[in-house]
Input
Amino acid sequence: MDLQLRHLRALVAVVDAGTFTDAATEMNTSQAAVSRSVAACEEILGVRLLQRTTRHVSLTGTGAQVLAGARRILDEVAHLHRIAEQSRTELRVGYAWAALGKHTRRVQRAWAGVRPGLPLVFVQINSLTAGLSEGAADVAVIRKPIDDPRFASAGIGTEARYAAVSTESPLARRRSLRIGDLSRYTVAIDVRTGTTTLDLWDPGPQPAAVRRTTGVDEWLTLIAANQAVGVTSEATANQNPRPGVAYRMLRQVPPIPVWLAWWRDDPPEGLDDLLRLSREAYGNLAAHLDGDL
Output
């Protein structure tokens, strides 16, 4: 016989309730069923877990260790059920740095009009898939291609590139910048999920130095302290204002394409509506971005 969840639930219930009778009441079953489940648990594991008297039960030393593991397993199972339940009651859209920028609220309002029973929830997950592979998101906003055949994607628009500089920097006094204006500074880059690579400086002088970061907060903190400059999308500028950081549009650099991605074999409910509303919000041509990444 294999160990089953009902065996672990019975063990935890007996320990928490203090008696088999009270545990049976909590589990809405018979005392005999609880006793059988605990006995089966002990038999399968080959150790005694509980010391039994006519009025009380107590854990053995091994039982205490097994109980801790049983609680962890049951907590993880409950977490899996919550994930599955969320996927039926809301559409979770993951993003690494910025959601849809200035378009986020417009898409949410439009979504509420066409899908009033399914909330559109944006969640920040700083990973390559913005929460898709972790199961934390049903759809992801991505600005960097995902080289993974498990996921499908479609373009929704493009965004201008912005420089982020300290308000103490001379660069902050300009209304717009060129990529070459940043080359004598240290450039902060998030190599995992960021949209900036050194290819932006080709041809042209490379940055004086590159500082790797692991997320938008660290990136902004470095820039506010005038220890680096950065390049990002206009969505970051819109969604992440920070005291000490000035955003300036970059001229003569390619725009950043924006895609929505999802599990290829499990497209979420409402995906077509989300794609349509997102493209309408961006208002620029996305047809050339359609297709898999």
Notes: Residues 285-293 have pLDDT under 50 and may be disordered. The longest helix spans residues 61-89.
